[in-house]
Amino acid sequence: MIPALSAALVLGLCAPAQETAAPELPVLDNATLSQALAELDASAQAELDTLGASRDGRPVHVLTIHGAPRAEGEARPAILVAAGLDGPHAYTSSLALEHARRLVQGYGRDDAVTRFLDATTVYVLPRLDVDGAAARFARPLDEVLATGYGVDDDRDGRQGEDPRADVDGDGLVTWMRVRDAEGEWIADPVDPRAMRKADRAKGELGEYALYREGYDADGDERVAEDGPRNAQVDRNFPRAWAEHADDAGRYPTDEPAVLGAVEFVLAHDDLVLALCYGEQGNLVGKPATQPDGGPRQRGALELGLHERDAAVVKELGARYREATKNTVEGVGEQPGSFASWLYHHRGLWTLDVAPWAVPLDFTPPAAEDAAAEERAAPDAAAPATAERGKAKAKADEGPEASDDAKRLRWLDHEGRDAFAPWTPFEHPQLGAVEVGGFKPYALVEPTPTKLAELADAHQAWLLTLGELLPRPRLELERFDALGGGLYELRVALVNDALLPFPSHAATRAGTVAPLQVRLELPAGATLVAGEARELVETLDAAGGRRALRWLVTLPAGADAPRVRLVSRNAGGAVLTATQDQAAQEVR
Amino acid sequence: MLTLLTALALLVPQTGAAQAAPTPPRPGGVNGLPLERPRKVDIAFNRLYDDAELYAHFDRIEAAYPELVSHEVIGHSVEGREMRVYTVHAKAAGDARDVPAMWVDANVHGNEIQGGEVTLYLAWYLCENYGALDEVTELLDGSAFYVLPMVNPDGRHHWIHDAHNPHSSRTGYRPVDDDRDGVADEDPPDDLDGDGQITMMRKYVPGEGTHRIDRDDPRVMERVGRENPEERGDWLLLGSEGIDNDGDGRVNEDGAGGYDMNRAWPSSWQPEHVQYGAGPYPLSWPETRCIAEFVLAHPNLAAVQSFHNAGGMILRGPGAEVFGEYPRADLRVYDELGKDGELMLPFYRYMVIWKDLYSVFGGFVNWTYEGLGIISFTNELWTDDREFPDDEDAPDRHWFDDHLRLGAGFVDWHPAHHPLYGDIEIGGFRKDVGRVPPSFMIEEMCHRNALFCVEHARAMPCVTVRSVEVAPLAGDLRAVDVVLENDRAIPTRTARAAQERVGEPDVVTLEGDGVEVLAGGPNPDRWHPERMQPAERDPARLVLEQGLGGRSELHLRWIVRGTGNVTVRWRGEKARDVSQLVPIE
Questions:
Q1: Which residue, A322, A393, B148, B318, is the most exposed by fewest CB within 10 angstroms?
Q2: For residue A211, what are the domain limits?
Q3: What is the pLDDT of residues A386-431, one digit of tens each?
Q4: CA distance A569 to chain B (A)
């Protein structure tokens, strides 16, 4: 990584690229991220604000990005881009920042960006867990999920007395393996660097105990089992909050960043959709679903998209995969997470993106070569070539590789400095151990080059989302004179977008304000039948219509009645029904 | 005159006796007060107070008993009223944080006000009897009460000062757009006749109505058509007093607030569409959040009571069937206290919230027990069974009102004009009828419920070192046998707390210079000490996740070497720490 080039990219100044150098996007520390956000704040298209301070007192930023000032009566829908939901995924903040930068800088220069921002507000919350991200740049280097309220993990009446530590002083918190007849682990025969559990059903005996790198500071024969912090920001949201779990916190929203995010979302009823970068993912695999009505027993745990919403997310997923080529499924919906709360309790369309993972299906070039040779010399009598190639590769490899061995295969091929070799070390409490294993962030973070590719793909995709948001229009169906100054006015509210208004989760939770259709009559007119203000709770997608009907009297020469759509997050519209449009014949 | 003479007669010898030899105080006839000792603070317990008056009475108690009472402001309500916690504890006996404490609150529902008076009575009773009644003295020396008289001072204030009915002003006062029209709190009930009450509206529509006037009592409206759907009455009942303020065709559909602060607590919290009133997230209102922070900052809380009205109930969780049942060991404690409560509180029944009342998600006492492992009750104060305690076939509440309030509880139907319905009549029971007791029954309610709190508080754990024996073992080894005892009903760690690893476990240490602790652990079988369960490590510091059970002993044995003085010390969150010096010779 070349720091100067990275910084230039962050600031959006295209440094003269060397011919062969692919663009790179670095992982940003908190100061650099804050600085970059502050620079965007100088633009007329962006305002920087804070959700408050984190548990350790760091500011949690949110950037509002908008296009042209809103027209009178226009309720512009908004998209929330959230990233950096936990420390290990600090890199996702770079994706969020790139969205912000490209939107701000593209506005007025790039038609697609201008069109998008003139119709859609974007809130970028680039790093929710700023304290976790700080660990990404601290020494010793460790992946830190737990940044919140601490508990007594080992129930010895002391809290936080036996944390992880960099025992061998190499600047990394990795792993320790110890020869132990009672251990459950063995070195994977496929790649002895990788540790896997012994398969006792197959008669394998464990050879190692495996520990996080650390001491037995409290002398309880357990290693690094009681760190100072436990609660995780992305487990402290109210939705399906796992009370009494060590990582859940004392109560939902106990973590200051969580309270800030919750209050921000509640205060922004223009939000329609959230794009969350992290570990979960609901666009690539098949996300869990549940019946539209929820569970049979009141109060039972609900997980998964409601079926009606799942159909929409499935289509969005197909488009996402097409646009980004991302194949990472993610770990699925997690209790107490931000994304889970946004969908289930606030009813936002919530798209979870797990941008990157080490591929497990990587075939090393040697095996590829063998397969290619097979293809080059087809044997008519043999089974289908590809299958035979697979069978051959499997036979050559012997036992099935563990997932970690598969990861190492790819990391080796990429030449990444991802693994600290197991190195003998004399541990003060455990005696002879080996310290080593995957380096922190090696399995989480893409390379700067890959990160830049991800930013490109996801920016293009983000711009397509604006088109999908419901912005219903009013369509005059009929304006008939019935005689004697009595008129019938029929208007349809029509949604042409891919997304219905609102999500089923929102309908269920009652969290999205209904659309209001107001009839505005000129002086002297009277409403004979119909509601002066109709509340429309739902509108189907792609041509969904709601017909509205009024009978009114209009004095001769009166101004035309008007129908106005008022919403919080679905645009706005005014339809004027002039008497020119009214059929003069009495039917 | 006779009374005055009697009092004088009592006073005179007392003065003389005080100079000669102190006379032990004798229990008198007034709430356990010794007759010869006048009350320091006189409070009328035959009426209900507004928020300012209630705090003012607490302040008088605090001023009269500074050695027993202090208060702190832990936050403010939505409308800025103080959230006050009064700590009642004998300061001379040490810091309240070092002794087990009982939380007592009231009035989370703004209209359920009389719990405030019960908390006032509790504080007053404890202070007046400290130093005079041994039970009270021991209680305030060895434990503390944290009393929060009003969880919802805004609701109380408005219920008392504004026009309401018995059920309204339950909510807090943060505006909520109940009818989802984009405007909050714009269509509340309206006091059309200006009498400070929200009663009912009826309209005379001969032959077109749904109701008729009861033949025996013209104040009572009777629904018609129950048996014959064709039947019509002469009257329509039009609901609570009010107009369609926002012109949406509905009346009184968006009043002040619109939520329930007893559905806001973290355990089993469910959002609004599962549990009405839950609000946008747990502890979202300032009243609830500051209480949660206080409770979490006081791990010495070992008992909880939260007063509501009405119905005459001593409620425990679970709040919802989906939770399952509480651990058996804790149920024994609940049942014992609950059954005592039924005896102390005539016409109250000991009940399970979801099974016997209705489902509640996110209730306060559900959080304090299910979340924090504290034995917790909600008493629903006042039941109209108290109106006619002897009569199974009691007459209706009009009879009670007519004979015991001379009709003061009912607003007679009277004509009024309504902008939409035209000529109507307004009438019905006043807001202080139905859910709060009549004035002459308030003091009894206060006393019985305050003493139920005392009963509950006296069940909080109290650990003592019951015995220590040092016996020679082989060579220069000694066995130190210690028996710890908790003689109260509530364990130092409830089964729930132990199961969910809430708070810190109890710790017992044996320490001393010159003495080496080689082994130690529980010794469950006194006849077979070899069945002791030596701790895996750190024998001088035994960690007890399960704590000391209710009314139980814990036998511990240490094997030590050397001589000197050692100290055995028990420490836990919910009882006063104890220690004893043990010479090893």
A1: A322
A2: 153-227+421-440
A3: 444 454 455 455 688 999 999 999 999 999 999 999 999 999 999 9
A4: 13
